[in-house]
């Protein structure tokens, strides 16, 4: 029998028994080189992305964020310029910090709106103490005075600046909005139609339209600076060490016109808040991240995504997190009003009266909207900038840390027994800080409030911690 190689044509060499092993070694070497080249390429890409994240294509932005913590699409934010204060604003600064303008002689605007605490309260009290002897409990926790320079006056429905007709009353606007279903707020999605809801204004209920209007409120509030009348404020201004500055700025005759003196004083306070950059610093880690000058940690990045996720936390549905189309930094509020159904704070002195209810827009501290009952229980959505520095949350200060706040959002509907007190039968007294006839005003449509009793909450505890980590990036004073 002939050998296998004897049948091959003369032009082909006989097979080498060692050749298959040699070929395999060559193939493995080639594959090894290929893997090494790919690995080197990936390493080079990662290194390039880490150094130049802003040069990465938008389509792989999320990958870049995961790898580097950087913003792959940085924005040049348009922030208010820092410049010397005008003479009027400097006068306003003195008034803002002057405790002699209070009945007690111990409380200034800065006492409740501390510059060292992002112009919010300096302690963890639900409400601040004031009054003639500094012993009277306030009605609501002071909101921050920071980031109000873009706040519009109170209105209902579409921006009144878009209307060509004569001024429209609140009753007329509310009537026009009455048949319109409330728009669901979804993070990252603009409403299909203008939101026919209360918006703008200052204080928790929007009753002041300007910073000047807001400034006089605490001076006449009996549980705050507690002046009994504008006449008392005038008397104190006439004895202030800065009276000569009033004369220089507004003329000698201002001291003989009490109403004008008070108006100019409050105008000066408003100018101080508008001009001084410390009221709108835009100096948080998130601001630097937006501009490509800082990188978020893994937890912060996860928190940002959950914050913006319309099916999870959905925070950005009301607390807008993206710059405007003209690159203005986000204020983390849509300046609209919501009825959230937070539990009653039974520790407040004002709530000792079981028949008393603070219903926000429709009273009791404003009376021009008392008949607009579809807005009872609604309060202004505050900015979340510097929120991690606060220790009293919501209009009644019922919560004192961000974990409690997030648990409320997460469990209000799915496990209300963990949020509200229980009645004699062991049933949670849901929405106990609003009369039952107004419970229909409370938001049950927007995530995470769209979950039902007994369903899985929108967020896990780990996810809540990530969101809190992100909210800590909204604190001013970050050093990149």
TrEMBL record:
Location(s) in or outside the cell: Cell envelope
Stretch list, region Disordered: 1-20
SUPFAM superfamilies: Cytochrome c (SSF46626)
Pfam family, one: CCP_MauG
MF-aspect GO terms: cytochrome-c peroxidase activity; electron transfer activity; heme binding; metal ion binding
The EC number(s) this enzyme carries: 1.11.1.5
TM spans (from-to): 27-51
Keywords tagged on the record: Heme, Iron, Membrane, Metal-binding, Oxidoreductase, Peroxidase, Plasmid, Signal, Transmembrane, Transmembrane helix
InterPro entries recorded: Cyt_c-like_dom, Cyt_c-like_dom_sf, Cytochrome_c_Peroxidase/MauG, Di-haem_cyt_c_peroxidsae, TAT_signal
All copies of domain Cytochrome c, residue ranges: 87-224, 298-475
Protein name: Methylamine utilization protein mauG
Source species: Paraburkholderia caribensis MBA4
